[in-house]
């Protein structure tokens, strides 16, 4: 039969190396999440800073204006004193009465202008009159020539100065103006104002801001901790100079050093300070957007600090949101991809199944055609065999028939003898009987008639046996062994009697699966041969024995005749092999007997018994192996 190659799996069903994907995909997704989250964070922070910057710019402008107006609103005040004749008189001629007048005047003016103090210095820098003349720490008589504002004002420049009062130790903004008379400076008017109101305002507005002066020292701050700290590094020389000027009294002027400083634009910086642990427990550092602007008419700068924590939190939230969204999208993409793969695998599997199915169907069709052809061939062979069998059977039947006819031919002499004897007796008896009837001897006549009857019966049995022997039989059938043995012995009765043999019969009356006539034929052949072999035997003995053998029945026919020599044994079952002289033997008996036994599913063999003679063993199947044995 043709051998097809095995069905190969389609490429789509082949196992893919997924391990690499499974190993690298999760870290890749996590990396992507982190990267996107971080980029979003930076972007959001940048945008936020931009927005904060714009807002801060407006706030800075607003508060710078406020600071400027707060500072500038006192600008005019020192120059007002030029109008006051008592002041110029006092400067020209400092008398106690005038001093008292001017003191009173300054006191009133100070009260009305809500400044801290107003005082007048002579050209040497000594305080001639002051609004706080009543106070214990009054400036009266004090020499303030070392003050920068005095030094500026005496030269005709506007004196602007933020410092800590050397008498009171109180910080303040000093505005000085050189008082002129006829083009000559005769003294200096000074007004000290406090700017703490600005700080309070910032604090109320929760604004973080500070003002640094020309030295970079924070003079105003919403956070008191930053006050009087330097926003830029001070050299030892500058520190020394400032200390000597007593501008900040003896304050240490520490630097407000940020942990981190990043310049974003001109006047815009990102500063990170350590957090004030007493206020902020949550953070260790605080970052600000610092926007600085010059204040008009002063060398000062206003810096607005906008905390970046909220913005950073918001940016972190957005970053996280984007990372989560990225994870979600990645998850959806992976899920979609997996589903797509499952679907395509299913489709491929279905396609492969269909292909395999088609292939299978094709092969089935091919094989069916092959099978049909071989079936046809087999049928042809069976037909031929049946025909051969039929021919064989016919030949066999012919042979059997020929054998039978031959046997009948052989037996014809003895049959004729068998039939002639009763015929002769019948003739005599019938003639006598007629005569006895004529004489009226009816008793003797009836006795003769009974004898005639018996003779006719005997003749009928002989012819019946011959007819049964000559009849064609069937392969299948059922035979009684007892009856067959009896029939065979009956058929050969003449010869048996003539030979005066000793018969040992030990046969069970079993039902054998063979046609009755055929069994009888076999037995007649075997017993007839035995009788032939024992012709020269003075004390012929014939053994007919039977027993069960391997589920079948075994019949042994043994004689004490001349036996079979080795050469004859080779050809025993060959047709027309005979050792019998003349017309006695045809050489068909054993051939036919063996073929009849084989046709019934049995066997026939010759054995050479140790005690001499010949033994034929006939084995035949039982009709019902369970049947009781008689
Ligand atoms: P036939 O009897 O016509 O010769 P058979 O086929 O019956 O043909 O026998 C073939 C030969 O087998 C006989 O000629 C004889 O030589 C031998 N044979 C058969 N039976 C016996 C027997 N019981 N003892 C010795 N020889 C036998």
Structure overview:
It is a multi-pass membrane protein. By secondary structure, the chain is an alpha+beta fold. Among the domains are: 77-193, Beta-Lactamase; 199-310, 2-Layer Sandwich (Beta-Lactamase), CATH 3.30.450; 473-624, Heat Shock Protein 90. It has 14 helices and 18 strands. It has helices at residues 19-72, 76-80, 85-92, 96-113, 148-154, 196-204, 236-245, 309-439, 442-470, 481-491, 493-499, 516-533, 566-570, 589-599; strands at residues 117-122, 127-130, 159-164, 171-181, 184-193, 208-212, 218-221, 260-265, 268-274, 285-294, 301-307, 479-480, 502-506, 511-512, 541-549, 552-559, 603-607, 614-621. The strands form four sheets. Strands 7-6-11-10-9-8 form a six-stranded antiparallel beta sheet. It has a five-stranded antiparallel beta sheet with strand order 2-1-5-4-3. Strands 13-15-16-18-17 form a five-stranded mixed beta sheet, covered by helices on one side. Helix 8 (309-439) packs antiparallel against helix 9 and helix 12 runs antiparallel to helix 14. The chain is rod-shaped, with a radius of gyration of 77 Å. The chain starts with 18 loop residues before the first helix and ends in a 9-residue tail after the last strand. The relative contact order is 0.07. Residues 525, 529-530, 533, 559, 561-564, 568, 572, 577-580, 585-591, 614 line the site of adenosine-5'-diphosphate. Adenosine-5'-diphosphate binds next to helix 12 and helix 14.
């Amino acid at each position: 039969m043709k051998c097809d190659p095995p069905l190969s799996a389609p490429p789509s069903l082949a196992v893919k190396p997924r391990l690499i994907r499974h190993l690298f995909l999760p870290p890749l997704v996590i990396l992507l999440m982190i990267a996107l989250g971080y980029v979003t964070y930076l972007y959001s922070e940048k945008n936020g800073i931009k927005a904060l910057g714009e807002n801060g710019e407006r706030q800075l402008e607003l508060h710078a204006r406020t600071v400027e107006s707060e500072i500038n609103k006192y600008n005019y005040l020192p120059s007002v004193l030029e109008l006051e004749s008592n002041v110029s008189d006092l400067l020209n001629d400092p008398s106690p009465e005038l001093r008292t007048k001017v003191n009173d005047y300054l006191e009133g003016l100070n009260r009305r202008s809500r400044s801290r103090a107003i005082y007048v210095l002579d050209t040497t820098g000594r305080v001639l009159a002051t609004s706080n003349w009543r106070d214990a720490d009054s400036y009266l008589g004090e020499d303030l020539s070392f003050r920068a504002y005095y030094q500026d004002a005496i030269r005709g420049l506007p004196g602007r100065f933020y410092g800590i009062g050397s008498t009171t130790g109180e910080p303040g903004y000093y505005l000085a103006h050189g008082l002129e008379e006829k083009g000559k400076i005769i003294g200096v008017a000074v007004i000290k104002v406090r700017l703490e109101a600005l700080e309070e305002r910032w604090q109320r507005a929760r604004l973080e801001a500070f003002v640094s002066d020309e030295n970079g020292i924070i003079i105003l701050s919403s956070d008191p901790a930053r006050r009087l700290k330097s926003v830029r590094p001070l050299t030892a020389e500058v520190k020394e100079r400032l200390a000597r000027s007593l501008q900040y009294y003896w304050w240490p002027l520490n630097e407000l050093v940020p942990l981190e400083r990043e310049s974003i634009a001109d006047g815009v910086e990102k500063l990170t300070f350590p957090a004030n642990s007493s206020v902020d427990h949550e953070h260790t550092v605080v970052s600000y957007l610092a926007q600085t602007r010059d204040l008009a008419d002063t060398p000062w700068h206003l810096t607005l600090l906008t905390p970046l924590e909220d913005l950073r939190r918001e940016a972190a939230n957005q970053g996280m949101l984007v990372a989560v969204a990225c994870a979600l999208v990645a998850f959806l993409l992976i899920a979609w991809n997996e589903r797509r793969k499952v679907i395509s695998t299913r489709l491929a599997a279905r396609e492969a199944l269909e292909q395999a199915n088609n292939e299978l169907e094709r092969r089935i069709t091919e094989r069916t055609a092959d099978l049909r052809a071989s079936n046809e061939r087999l049928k042809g062979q069976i037909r031929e065999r049946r025909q051969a069998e039929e021919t064989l059977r016919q030949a066999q039947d012919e042979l059997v028939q020929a054998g039978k006819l031959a046997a009948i031919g052989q037996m014809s002499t003895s049959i004729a003898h068998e039939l002639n004897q009763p015929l002769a007796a019948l003739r005599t008896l019938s003639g006598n009987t007629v005569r006895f009837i004529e004489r009226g001897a009816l008793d003797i006549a009836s006795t003769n008639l009974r004898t005639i009857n018996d003779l006719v019966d005997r003749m009928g049995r002989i012819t019946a046996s011959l007819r049964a022997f000559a009849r064609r039989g069937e392969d299948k059938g059922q035979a009684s062994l007892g009856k067959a043995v009896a029939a065979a012995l009956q058929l050969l009765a003449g010869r048996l009697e003539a030979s005066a043999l000793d018969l040992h019969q030990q046969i069970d009356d079993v039902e054998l699966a063979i046609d009755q006539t055929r069994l009888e034929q076999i037995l007649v052949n075997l017993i007839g041969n035995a009788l032939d072999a024992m012709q020269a035997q003075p004390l012929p003995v014939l053994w007919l024995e039977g027993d069960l053998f391997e589920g079948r029945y075994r019949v042994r026919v043994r004689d004490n005749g001349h036996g079979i020599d080795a050469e004859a044994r080779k050809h025993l079952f060959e047709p027309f092999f005979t050792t019998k002289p003349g017309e006695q033997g045809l050489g068909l008996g054993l051939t036919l007997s063996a073929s009849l036994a084989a046709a019934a599913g049995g066997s026939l063999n010759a054995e050479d018994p140790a005690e001499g003679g010949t033994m034929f063993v006939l084995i035949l199947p039982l009709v019902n192996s369970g049947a009781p044995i008689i």
